[in-house]
Amino acid sequence: MRESVLSAAQIVITLALVAWMITGFTSLPGRWLRWKMFCRATFTIVTLTGTTKDGHAEQVNVYDHLSPGSFILGPPQLQAILDHLTASGRYDRIDGTGRVLTVRGEQPAKVVAGRVVL
Fold it and tell me: What is the pLDDT of residues 26-38, one digit of tens each?
């Protein structure tokens, strides 16, 4: 009888833990995941086109300008990279569209003439 009580307690604890994990990793309306790492981070996903001084347009990959291992790019970091690319003379103008994922949900973002517009 003692073995069945221990087994029942293990099953109940296991099911409670599984239920807690499932609710902890599911999304709520207006939020992108619920895990604390994702709730407090701000992700910027953009497609950018840079125009050189001679009028040539090319795709800009901002992740080429981040330190190795970096993958979370918020609007201030994106703006700093855009400022660097235009100040260095590499691009005359950078434009693009995308979205920002935050604890408040997802919102559209634009880059117009090298400025991030939310």
Answer: 555 555 455 555 5
Token pair of 51 as six digits: 């125009």
DSSP helix/strand/coil, 113: coil
- What would the 3-class secondary structure string for 20-79 be? HHHHHCCCCCCCCCCCHHHHHCCEEEEEEEEECCCCCEEEECHHHHCCCCCCCCCHHHHH
What is the distance between the alpha carbons of residues 84 and 80, in angstroms, rounded to a whole number?
6
Closest CA to 110 of 70, 75, 77: 75
**Residues 53-72: tens digit of each pLDDT:** 899 999 998 888 877 777 77
Amino acid at 118: L
For 32, the token pair is 């992108």
